[in-house]
């Protein structure tokens, strides 16, 4: 109880401090984005860049910023998306493969066959090898299995592990970025800490690389399961010409340190049922059945169903 009271007091103090000389004026566009994301029908294209403990963007030798381009499609209760490491080669993003799916409480990883060099040709929208296959292959996990599974405990010799490693990426690829939680706390997002919904505290103007952004700041606190304080987190939503262009996450426990940045190329309602579907039939397998320990012991894949194509090859956008 004391920990909860302290957390509540901390939030009050944060908001009182923020009020000093600040005019509360959340960007009017925030309501549009809230409504859009909460509707469940949206298309989101963005780039995620993590920072190190000093707030500097993580760099990769010869490549530069450790940035991941992501595409998320939401339509009714279906969510599809991808972490696109090869977006510069993919061309039209609307045609790019969407290997991750959340549907009916299950997670799917849609991928290839044994010919590793031809893996990308097995995904809708790309055909790098010139080969064509009539059926894709997908691995499925229930939400419960997905939440409980610890890949670090799995036998690396198990041939199924490569699939679970792929499926494990859905943990980051399908949920909306945490930096948007002030607008919509995504129910399929996961966090090992207890996180209160971020609260709006102030607006300001920030200049980044010569461009003036309107910045709305939101603050929340992280606590463990026992209610013990872990960190205070700030989220900045940055608007340019009335559109949400960027968001940033900061740790303010030991001085303000940026933890990550998202740049939004598109957030819109331009999505159809076909966008979250598939152009080819998908053979679905379940790894390990209902007992996840079976996976750790190397049980073979279990066939579940065929998901029929939602559109023909000729109907692709």
Describe the structure.
This protein has helices at 2-19, 29-39, 87-90, 143-148, 161-168, 170-173, 292-296, and strands spanning 42-50, 59-60, 64-65, 68-75, 78-84, 100-103, 106-111, 136-142, 194-195, 199-208, 211-223, 229-240, 243-251, 257-268, 282-287, 301-307. By secondary structure, it is α+β, with helices and mostly antiparallel strands. The radius of gyration is 21 Å and the shape is globular.
- Give the tally of β-strands: 16
State the end-to-end distance: 55 Å
Query: Which stretches are low in confidence, meaning pLDDT under 50 for 5 or more residues running?
Result: 2-6, 8-22, 86-96, 113-130, 312-317
Largest sheet: 14 strands, mixed
Q: For the CA atoms, what is the radius of gyration? A: 21 Å
Which keywords apply here?
single chain; 317 residues; alpha+beta; 14-stranded mixed β-sheet; two-stranded antiparallel ribbon; 7 helices; 16 strands; 18% helix
Any chance you could write out the topology, listing elements then pairs?
Layout: H1 2-19, H2 29-39, E1 42-50, E2 59-60, E3 64-65, E4 68-75, E5 78-84, H3 87-90, E6 100-103, E7 106-111, E8 136-142, H4 143-148, H5 161-168, H6 170-173, E9 194-195, E10 199-208, E11 211-223, E12 229-240, E13 243-251, E14 257-268, E15 282-287, H7 292-296, E16 301-307
Parallel strand pairs: 8-15
Antiparallel strand pairs: 1-4, 1-14, 2-3, 4-5, 5-6, 6-7, 7-8, 9-11, 10-11, 11-12, 12-13, 13-14, 15-16
């Amino acid at each position: 109880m004391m920990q909860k009271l302290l957390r509540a007091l901390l939030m009050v103090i944060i908001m009182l401090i923020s009020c000093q000389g600040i005019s509360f004026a959340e960007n009017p566009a925030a309501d549009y984005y809230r409504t859009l994301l909460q509707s469940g029908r949206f298309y989101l294209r963005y780039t995620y860049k993590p920072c190190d403990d000093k707030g500097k963007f993580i760099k990769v030798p010869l490549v530069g910023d450790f940035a991941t381009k992501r595409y998320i499609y939401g339509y009714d209760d279906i969510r599809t998306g991808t972490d696109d490491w090869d977006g510069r080669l993919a061309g039209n993003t609307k045609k790019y493969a969407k290997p991750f799916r959340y549907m009916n409480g299950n997670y799917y990883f849609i991928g290839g066959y044994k010919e590793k060099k031809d893996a990308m040709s097995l995904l809708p929208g790309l055909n790098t090898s010139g080969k064509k296959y009539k059926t894709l292959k997908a691995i499925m996990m229930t939400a419960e299995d997905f939440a409980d599974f610890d890949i670090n405990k799995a036998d690396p010799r198990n041939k199924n592990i490569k699939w679970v490693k792929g499926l494990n990426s859905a943990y980051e690829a399908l949920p909306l970025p945490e930096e948007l939680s002030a607008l919509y706390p995504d129910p399929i997002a996961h966090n090992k800490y207890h996180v209160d919904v971020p609260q709006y505290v102030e607006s300001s103007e920030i200049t980044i690389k010569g461009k003036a952004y309107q910045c709305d700041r939101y603050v929340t606190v992280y606590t463990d399961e026992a209610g013990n304080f872990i960190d205070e987190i700030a989220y900045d939503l940055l608007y340019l010409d009335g559109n949400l262009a960027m968001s940033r996450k900061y740790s303010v426990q030991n001085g303000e340190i940026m933890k990550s940045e998202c740049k939004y190329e598109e957030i819109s309602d331009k999505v159809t049922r076909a966008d979250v579907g598939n152009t080819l039939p998908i053979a679905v397998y379940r790894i390990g059945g209902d007992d996840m320990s079976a996976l750790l012991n190397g049980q073979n894949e279990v066939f579940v169903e065929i998901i029929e194509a939602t559109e023909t090859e000729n109907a692709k956008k």
